[in-house]
Amino acid sequence: MATMVIGSKTGIFHLNKTLWKCRTELGSDVVIDVEDFSFFLHKFPLMNASPVLRKLIGKNSHEEHNHCNFTLHEIPGGPHSFEHAVKFCYGEKFELTSSNVVPILCAAYYLDMNEDYMAGNLISQAENFLSNKVLSNWKESITALLSCEPVFNFSEKIDVVSKCLDSLACKVTYGKLSYPPTKPSWNGIVYADAPPLKLKGTDLNWWHDDVSSLSLPLFKRLIGLLGAKGHDPENISSAVIYYWNKVHPGLVLDSTGVYVDDLRILLEEMVALLPVQKGVTPTKTLLSMLSTSLMYNASSACIESLEKRIGAQLDESTLEDLLVPNLQGPNQPNHASSKKNESKYDMDCIQRIIEQFVEENLNVTKTSNLQDDENPMEAQSHELNKVAAVAKLVDEYLMKISTEAHLDFRQFQSLAGAIPASARSSNDDLYYAIDVYLQYHADLSEQQKEQLCQLVDMRKLSRDACRHVALNEKLPLRVVVKVLFIELIHLKSSLGEHEAEALIGPELTAEIETETENEIDNSGRREMLWQRLKLHRNYETLKKLIKKLEKAKEARKNWSISFCKNMESVRIFKMLPASRGQQDAA
Which residues contact 42 (CB under 8 A, 6 or more apart)? Predict the structure, then answer.
């Protein structure tokens, strides 16, 4: 720890319980009360160093016995700081440290112990020590800033808090040896150094634990300074999360079982401190903070902010992340009749997050071609891939919650329709989620079932899913007919109308085309129709395979002919030199 010794005398004062007295032959002629302590002192050394004490002594002295007594009510740092100021006046030896320099400096300013009144006065010596020994070191700066807490208002007034915070912010951004940012130059003129380079590397979280010891107001100001200096927002986000994780476990329930307001306020402040840049705070962390916000009944602004942040980067989430418990805040009224309050998960919250993601990413996709990007098509494809990933995630979420007994129809319909149909390359997962929901909610009307099925693009179902639809007795017949009609269209487009009728029969073809619901109302006829359609698919596959085999056979035949011709040419070529040799011999 940095120290600076002031004064040289020893043994001048001694403390007797709450009484400070001088060990001198000369009796005291002034008594100054500071809180519960009384200081028996002498006028001359006090008046020689402090104009404030000089004025108070003159005001409270009595001419008849030349003795005075008064009280210092508001001296910052209380009797401990005043003790050091008095020792300075008497030349008593004491040490300045990073933990006491701020209260002593505040007391010196309160007593106006400046350089104009006396050369080498306490203010100048304390400020020199603070600037040169304390603020140039990270740990000492932290200690000094913590010592500002008991004298916060006065230390703020003399700008000590700002200097400590600026020292810390510079060290975090540019390195531990980057403060002070100015240096004296020729002829006493101070020139600013060139802007230092910002720190880079992997170990950028070295400062998180130290600053977590700061009070919330000081921590907020430090984070604000870091943002103003352009510090890495991801590193700032990590510091905020570290502070939250370290501080909030110490806040517990009160005697009534209700969470204290301090925890809710702390959470709201932490959310407000998180950088606004997209992606700098992990989605898992945001979702965890959202769950906590709902538990502690945080403000609507706090919850909305978290939902928007999560929605902007929902593609980074997993199914487990979306399973936000349905937690009623302690001050929230209990609506026992509401199904939503009886649900296991908070689905309204997730729906707002999904809608936020879709709104933001679809807007980006629509405007991406209007921007001067280097690769606008690539950027648009990236955004569409993100929406597709979220669509798959939402389908998994629907499958998970579809078994919820308290999940009403409107809630499930809204969640299923939150992602536009164009965002899904396949509708299999959505269909299977709806199927499970119908299984666990058998009391739905035919109209409600049809409304859910309208969310599924039957043209984007796989072969297995289409077969499941065709044989699914839980679905309205109109939906089944629609799937079969789509298959018939595919059949006709590949075989032709007459061949298709020959394959599945004119009677069933007519049933599908007219969407008659009273002729295919049993699973047996559906299975028969489906097997015929499947037979067509197999027939088409076989035809393609035969064509490939024929092409391969033809290619092999051509290769064999070509090979034979080449071999004949080689044989003729080899015979030519022999013929020439025979002619030469003759």
Answer: 22, 24, 26, 28, 29, 30
